[in-house]
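Researcher: Here's the sequence for the chain we discussed earlier.
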Amino acid sequence: MSGSGGSFADTTNPTTTFSGTAGTTYTLRWTVRNSPCTASTDDVVIIFNQNPTAAGAGSDQTVCSTTATLAGNTPTVGTGTWTVIAGSGTVTTPSNPTSGVTSLSVGVNTFVWTISNGVCPASKDTVTITRDESPTTANAGSDQTVCLTIATLAGNTPTVGTGAWTVIAGSATVTTPGDPTSGVTGLSVGANTFVWTISNASCPPSKDTVTITRDESPTTANAGLDRTVCSTTATLAGNTPTVGTGAWTVIAGSATVTTPGNPTSGVTGLSVGANTFVW
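Model: Thanks. This is the structure I predict for it:
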């Protein structure tokens, strides 16, 4: 016998039990004698394999990509190999415990790390890599200009993920933040800026911005009192706007406004009878 630590239950029994040490290879010799003849011998090799290292496939992962990296343990006894049991992932180097994987399908991709050693039962562990799909690209719609404190947004409806409006400039309030075409109230004068964000699980969100500019209502026009003159000229008496700009137009008569943008412009060429001006 070669190899240490082994023992026979009965060395004279051709089918005796032999006990050895795991991880040791033994060469055993069976000898048949019939004196004075030369003995007949034959050898047999028995390998006592060790149980493989317990497989550890690593923690489950969630990614937003078609690629990832596995995190199996390195065996001290036996050899490991990855197999795919769910999803469309491809293991780049199946024998590498930390192999990369490609072509992950959306949803669950399941991998088994199996460590084997000879005839011993293999050790297996499973890991799941869940791939989230990238959200729909956000589109907040075209910029708007209004003359009210209310408006309607025009974001796109996501096919992947969920959307939410946020206000980043101005005093407006979004009525229904999760509605791509929500109304808004309380628009402040000037720029009101909104961000439409579409999110899906672990993936980076997609964002787009829209601005609704509210113009302030113009000063209420006051063209002054009606007048009667005995001349072809006169002076208008409109009010000076604090918001907006004014302009005179002639809607009746033959008069000409000297400076249409001046609330107190002179007029010439008044025709006999009514001459009507709009401020």
